[in-house]
Amino acid sequence: MIIQDTMPATVLAVGRLMAGTAGESRRSAHLFDLHSGGSHPEFLHARCGAAMPYDHLEWIPVGSGMPCERCLGLAGSVDQTRLPRPSRGV
Predict the structure, then answer these.
(1) Inside any domain, residue 31
(2) pLDDT tens digits, residue range 35-58?
(3) Which H or E run includes 69?
(4) d(C-alpha 49, C-alpha 39), whole Å
(5) Residue 64 pLDDT > 60
(6) Would you tell me how many other CB atoms lie within 10 Å of the CB of residue 53?
(7) Which has the closest alpha carbon to 10: 37, 40, 28?
(8) Number of other CB atoms surrounding residue 52 within 10 Å
(9) Chain centroid to CA 60: how far?
(10) Which of 1, 46, 55, 79 is buried deepest, with most CB atoms within 10 A?
(11) Domain boundaries, position 17
């Protein structure tokens, strides 16, 4: 049984422009914050600020395609502890 209240308000998705809608250099994989709801806007905004037509997007698995560097930079900081480098004595 699916309980509707357990669905997150925002889902992170990876998408890019479909083949034939843009040149290969513009088909990088962007991060999109999708909001729950039945309708979708005409344009979706990636985390980097790029606006893309909803009906020209293809959704791809995480790790696929060439990532947008700006979206990756804005993906959220993961709090990782820096490990010492034994070879450098740091």
Answers:
(1) yes
(2) 876 667 899 999 999 999 999 999
(3) helix 69-73
(4) 21
(5) yes
(6) 13
(7) 37
(8) 19
(9) 10
(10) 46
(11) 10-40+59-74
